# Entry
Amino acid sequence: MKIWIKLLVGSIIGIVLGALLPAVGDSMDVVGYLSRLFVQIGRYVVFPLTFFGLLIGTYELKREKKLGGVYARLVVYLLVSTVLLILIGIGTLLAFSPERIPIIVEQETPFRLPGIRETLLALFPENLFQALVGSGSFLLPVAFMAVLVGVNLNFDLHVTSPVVQLADSLSRIFYHLNSLLSELFGFAMVVIAAAFLMNVRQGELVLFRQILVILAIDCAVIIFAVYPALLYFLGERENPYKWLYAAIAPALVGFFSGDAYLSITMLVKHGRENLGVPRRVGSAAYPLFAIFGRAGTALVASASFLLILKSYSSLEISFLQVLWTVGFTLFVSLALGSVPGMGAYVALASLCGLFGRGLQEGYLILRPIAPLLISFGVLLDVLTSGFVAMLVARKVNVWDAVESREFV
# Structure
């Protein structure tokens, strides 16, 4: 049975279970704990998988003299996709003009993203090996060290070839371990989907139906129209929807878990065996987009922020406020690498804090739908990552076409 079918069946069972169980008390505590446990099990190999895959992938790209081209394309596509999705989110919000949401006066500990100084200290700890044993919520130090080592494996192959062989072997070992977890993750999806629905049921969704409909429309337009159209005009003239079928499993995991790092495990598996993205491209693309390329999260945060701004003011949203939202949402989206599981909500809180003017706690009015905001964002993040990885692999001529019947 294909992995996406296992995940879909597990998700359906989980939704039914989440609809039947009470969303309070012991049931909520038990299901919530088990969901967190399975997410951590799914992320069990993410850091070593990323480190050894990126290390050997960087070495291979440099040996083929494609390192600069691949990374340049990834960065350009990352920025373009983020800006594009922000503009789509803002455009649909302004076009549909949802009703204001009643202001809720609550208190909550504000979120704080790490600044440049904290990020630099994490990248360059006092002991280099601390980068390998740091927090499980920040992938950047591990990825940075992998690239640093990878680009330094070509100076003398007589000296470095044993390290290359060891890194290659470990990369393949963790890939196979990740494949095993991917095959079995359908069972975990039962609990993860149940916990997701139970969290959603705790909120009063009627007040937020308009913004949720707008975000759902955004997702549908991007997934079924924007990306296939881009793929068609960039060369895929036969079936521009084939890539979407190949990415069903990562999309399901991303949506129900809301965790960008967990989604890497499915992207690595399906990117190679469905999308035809080789390790030397995928090992760079997936961590880079999980750390910096949160285009879907940026879309959700920008649209939600303008709705909050509209709810707090009787005036129409001005052009300067739209420009501010575009610029600062892009800036905030690049700093979400340390919050793989709450991206959209933390981004929204950061935008409110940066804007000020009495809006510092404005994000609280959308707290009842925070799980849905996070899930919409990660869904688009994951699909954008897989889409861009495939585009880059095609552009640098390392893409391997895979027939649909061979998908895992």
